[in-house]
Every structure is written in C-alpha cells, then in structure tokens.
C-alpha cells in the first residue's frame, strides 16, 4: 500500500507549483486584451490593462487610447504589476525553501506574509480598474469584464489560498518532514 501524506516528496512541491500557476495566470492578465469587451455584435469596444480600443460599426481598424494617460490607469497597472513582481519573488523563495533542507521552515511564514501583500496589491488594482474605467471612459453598446480580467482574479484567489497554507505550514513541520513516528491503534477482538 502506497500512501502519499504530507511527508511525500512530490507533495512538498504543490505550493510552489500553485505559485507557478498563479504567475502564469498573472502573465495572461497582464498581456491579455480581454479586460473589457463588447458583449455582443457589433464588437466595438475592447480594453486591456494598458489601453482602451473602440471602432465604428463598419470600421475594421481599432482606435486605441492609452490608459496610462489617466492617473487611475497608472495606479491600477502599477499596483497589479507590483503585486506580480512580489509574486515572482515569492515563487523563487518558495523553490529555495523547499530545495534546501536547512532553510525550509525558517522563512516559510515570511513567504506567506508576502503573499498576503501580493493579494492586497492585486485586489487594489483589480478594483480600481473597473470602477474608474466605467466612470471615465465612454462605453458603447453592452460590455462585460472578460477573460483576462478573470485571470487576474483567479491569480489573486490562488495567491490568497497559498498565503494561508504558507502561514500554517510550519505548524505541521514534523509531519511534513516525516519526523513523527506513526501511531498504531489496535482493537482487541
């Protein structure tokens, strides 16, 4: 019988793997043009974190304006980007923490604290964007916040979950490292 508990070597890498997944979703959110899109035809509006594009009904070319001309656009991009950079640093620290035996649990809680900071920065950016976008940019037709914006929120949710696990992981250090003798319970017939 094979049991993969917390002491299993492969299971130790789940948290860094989840952080890597959050980084991939963050890259998609940063590069994606689907933060805001027209909901139905004619598709006349689309926006990314960096610019807003519109076109007329019969026009094939997009007319784009930079959101970096607005203070809120710079604030939303900066806060999300700062959170993303700290996330990449946390990923590197997590890989180091789980690779080197001596350092493993010395700074795992610190990584969890940094991940809460990442989540705060990303949430600020993800809230500033739709609130100020709908106030300052004239919207045409029916629009929706779309897939790239959703990837930003998905990255944030994964980061929050990992932050809790990183903060709680040192409480089970002996179980993770396999330092506890198994307890057997016998019942008499």
CATH architecture: Up-down Bundle
Q: Report the portion of residues in β strands.
A: 5-15%
Helix content: 40-55%
What is the strand arrangement across the widest sheet?
4-3-2-1-5
Largest sheet: 5 strands, antiparallel
Briefly note the CATH topology name: Butyryl-CoA Dehydrogenase, subunit A, domain 3
Distance from N terminus to C terminus (CA atoms, Å) equals 24 Å
Number of domains: 1
**Uncertain segments:** 1-7
Number of helices: 5
Mean pLDDT figure:
83
**Backbone structural class:** alpha+beta
Query: How many E strands?
Result: 5
Shape: elongated
CATH class: Mainly Alpha
Secondary-structure element sequence?
Answer: HEEEEHHEHH
Rg calc: 22 Å
How does this model look, in words?
It is a multi-pass membrane protein. The chain has helices spanning 14-31, 71-99, 108-136, 147-168, 173-177; strands spanning 36-38, 45-47, 51-54, 63-66, 143-145. The chain is of the alpha+beta class. The protein is elongated and about 80 Å long. Residues 1-7 have low confidence and may be disordered.
């Amino acid at each position: 019988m094979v049991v993969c508990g917390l002491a299993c070597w492969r299971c130790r890498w789940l948290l860094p793997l989840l952080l890597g997944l959050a980084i991939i979703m963050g890259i998609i959110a940063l590069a994606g043009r689907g933060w805001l899109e027209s909901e139905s035809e004619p598709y006349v509006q689309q926006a990314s974190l960096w610019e807003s594009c519109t076109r007329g009904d019969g026009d094939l070319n997009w007319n784009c304006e930079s959101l970096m001309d607005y203070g809120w656009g710079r604030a939303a991009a900066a806060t999300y980007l700062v959170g993303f950079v700290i996330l990449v640093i946390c990923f590197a620290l997590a890989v180091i923490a789980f690779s080197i035996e001596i350092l493993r649990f010395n700074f795992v809680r610190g990584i969890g604290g940094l991940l809460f900071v990442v989540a705060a920065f990303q949430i600020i950016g993800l809230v500033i964007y739709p609130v100020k976008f709908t106030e300052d940019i004239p919207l045409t037709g029916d629009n929706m916040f779309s897939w790239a914006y959703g990837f930003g929120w998905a990255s944030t949710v994964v980061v929050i979950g990992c932050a809790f696990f990183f903060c709680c992981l040192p409480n089970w250090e002996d179980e993770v490292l396999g330092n506890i003798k198994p307890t057997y319970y016998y019942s008499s017939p």
